[in-house]
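Weekly puzzle thread! Below is a chain. First person to post its structure in token form gets bragging rights.
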Amino acid sequence: MAVYTDFYYYETEVYQATWGYLEGYHAIWLLVIKTILEFLVVVLYCKNSWGTTWGIFGYLKFATK
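Winning reply:
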């Protein structure tokens, strides 16, 4: 995935790049795909390799466009 500056500050919300510069690219593991019809968005539940102190115990929710 493309990583923008705001990704380093991710905590628990659904991540969607909103600010910063392109920092590079990062591999993540896709676990589950969930469609939230009320908002017409697809949420991907992913595991990050930065350890359990990052994000939601090492996981993130990623919104697609």
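Puzzle host: Confirmed. Bonus trivia for everyone else. The chain has no helices and six strands.
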